[in-house]
Amino acid sequence: MLNSDHTELDLPPPHSEPESAFSDCGRAGGTEDTAGLGICPQSRVSEAGEAGKKELQHLSREERRRRRRATAKYRTAHATRERIRVEAFNLAFAELRKLLPTLPPDKKLSKIEILRLAICYISYLNHVLDV
Question: Where is the composition biased (Basic and acidic residues) (predicted)?
Answer without folding.
Answer: 50-63
